[in-house]
Amino acid sequence: MSTTTFGQGTRIEISHLTKRYPGTVVPAVDDVSVTVAAGEFMTFLGPSGSGKTTTLNMVAGFTDITSGRIVLGDEDVSGLPPHRRDLGMVFQQYALFPHMTVEQNIAFPLKQRKTPAAEITRRVAEALELVHLSEYGKRYPSALSGGQQQRVALARAVVFAPRALLLDEPLGALDRKLRSTLQDEVRRMHRELGLTFVFVTHDQEEALALSDRIAVFNAGGIEQVGTPEELYLRPATLFVAEFLGESNVFHGTLDRARRAYHWQGSTWSAPSAASDVDGALLVRPERLQLNVDSAAVPAEHNGLSVRVVSDIFLGTHHKVELRMPDGSTGSAMVPVSAARDFRPGDLVHASWAPEDQSVVAVPAGGPGDVPGAAPRDGLAPPASRSATAAH
Fold it and tell me: What pLDDT is stored for residue 273 in this prediction?
């Protein structure tokens, strides 16, 4: 099988992209800028209504843009119809023609481009091999499982050698086990083909598992762009921190001069305070250590005393839910090998290494403005929410 049959990765540059629907005050997409490198797997991640799918549809040409531009390689395609952009598209609903066989479905975009018959036969065979369905070419979609139908949709989307592949929640209709299997297939296809992938999902785990980089959307803008590791370990905003995984969040005061953080009478070391933003201090649950004896807490750790609310066994680890001194809740992920018998009401010492914490930006209106699709007026100005971040 020759993967060059299916094209090569193309750079996608999205510049100051805005979409405002008639009769609406708040833009659906507001001044979004991001660059996807050639051959990169970029995921647009965010809650419903955050603008990620609208942005993808503008890239595809299905939705007109209000302002801004989209460049594929060296070509500005902002005003081109979808069929002239040469982009593959995969949807959550497979959109296969029920009256056509698998081979005929995959061949359809080639026939639309008036590809010679012999070339169609060769390309369809290679596409079927790519998605491991070589024995299913003569079947109709109704005879396939949901996962197999989505593989056919993937094959059809790449068979004509597109400049990039756009995927809009392609695994959303599948059950958890099948979804995990197809994630592996999507990852393998990207690795083998070297195509540029732009993948839309609201599933944080899926985004972390698949992506080279992730653009986190919220309320029509981009909060942050980075690798999965960067976003998880060093989120730039409270929204990113709370949307991408669980967090222990402390709303206190950063003392830059002393490189310290003050919260509820506690003072914690903040060695990176000189470069951090003013905001909330974040510690991920798996970075939090619990000790019954305060003498066991490492001297260099930050920490506080907390009450155990519950201890939940989750197979590889225990999730210990905690009550903070101010009445807020938090949690620690304790490996089974290090777990103790924590009981509700126990007083324990929670601690963490200073390098395992982050100070993240909080919306101007305070923590209450963070969840979901927060109003644009309560967040940072649009210029700070676009992220042009090429490799």
Answer: 64
Is residue 169 within 8 Å of residue 202, measured between CB atoms? yes
Burial of 267 (0-12, 13-18, 19+ CB in 10 A): middle
Q: How is the chain split among helix, strand and coil, in percent rounded to 5?
A: 30, 30, 40
* Look-up of token digits 């598209």: 89
- Alpha carbon distance 217, 213 (integer Å): 13
> Domains in the chain, start-ordered, CATH in brackets?
3-230 (3.40.50.300), 252-361 (2.40.50.100)
Please report which confidence band the pLDDT of residue 391 belongs to, taking 50, 70 and 90 as the band edges.
very low
The residue with tokens 């042009």 is: 388
DSSP single-letter state for residue 298: -
What's residue 245's pLDDT? 87
Q: In what order do the strands lie in the sheet with 317-323?
A: 289-291, 347-352, 302-313, 317-323, 329-335
Contact at 8 Å (CB) between 137 and 103?
A: yes
> Is residue 320 predicted with pLDDT exceeding 90?
yes
* CA pair distance 105, 136, nearest whole angstrom: 12
Phi, psi (5° rounding) for residue 278? -70, 130
User: Would you state the pLDDT for residue 389?
Assistant: 40
* DSSP states of 197-237: EEEEES-HHHHHHH-SEEEEEETTEEEEEE-HHHHHHS-SB
Q: Which strand ranges, in their side-by-side order, compose the sheet holding 280-283? A: 248-250, 280-283, 357-360
What's residue 388's pLDDT? 35
pTM comes to 0.86
Mean pLDDT value of segment 21-43: 96
pLDDT of residue 370: 41
238 close to 370: Cβ distance less than 8 angstroms? yes
Which residues does residue 93 pair with via DSSP β-bridges, in sequence order? none
H or E segment to which residue 242 belongs: helix 238-243
Query: What does the alpha-carbon distance between residue 231 and residue 229 come to, in Å, rounded to a whole number?
Result: 6
Q: Which of 310, 260, 252, 318 is nearest to 280 (CA)?
A: 252
